[in-house]
Amino acid sequence: MNPDLIEPPYPLQAHLGFRMVDWREDYSRFDLPIVPHLGNRFGIVHGGVHAMMLDTVMGFAGCFTGDPDAPQQAMTLSMTTNFLSQAKGDLLIAEGFRTGGGRKTFFARAQITDNTGELIATATGVFRYRGRG
């Protein structure tokens, strides 16, 4: 991944500590170490953390331009999330894939695994580009 393309963390990203690991056309990956403050009342990672990561990687997957001077942004129109398992490892790995779309909207899918390979959650989403006519 070209380090010039890494955007500064947005506020929630900085607060939670997840980081961009890879970003290229139609793909993005973010990692998040599992730490106690991400837990729910059962002591496992809160589902909202998973949903936020899935939303983030899908949005980034559809917004790659390859030009740090021409950033693209999008907003989520809809997202369907499936919670499948709980993490067994100590790192969440979220991957997003742009699967189609047009000039104003795009479609994406995403998954979260942990560093043991456990599939934790999946999602699909529809996104609208911001600033496109």
From TrEMBL:
InterPro entries noted in UniProt: HotDog_dom_sf (IPR029069), PAAI_dom (IPR003736), Thioestr_dom (IPR006683)
EC number(s) recorded for this UniProt protein: 3.1.2.20
Reactions catalysed according to its record: a medium-chain fatty acyl-CoA + H2O = a medium-chain fatty acid + CoA + H(+); a long-chain fatty acyl-CoA + H2O = a long-chain fatty acid + CoA + H(+); a fatty acyl-CoA + H2O = a fatty acid + CoA + H(+)
Residue ranges constituting the Thioesterase domain according to the UniProt record: 42-120
Molecular-function annotations in GO: fatty acyl-CoA hydrolase activity
Highest taxon of source: Bacteria
Keyword Hydrolase: yes
Pfam families: 4HBT
Uppermost EC category: hydrolase
UniProt KW keywords: Hydrolase
Sequence similarity: Belongs to the YigI thioesterase family.
Designated name of the protein: Medium/long-chain acyl-CoA thioesterase YigI
Origin species: Lutimaribacter saemankumensis
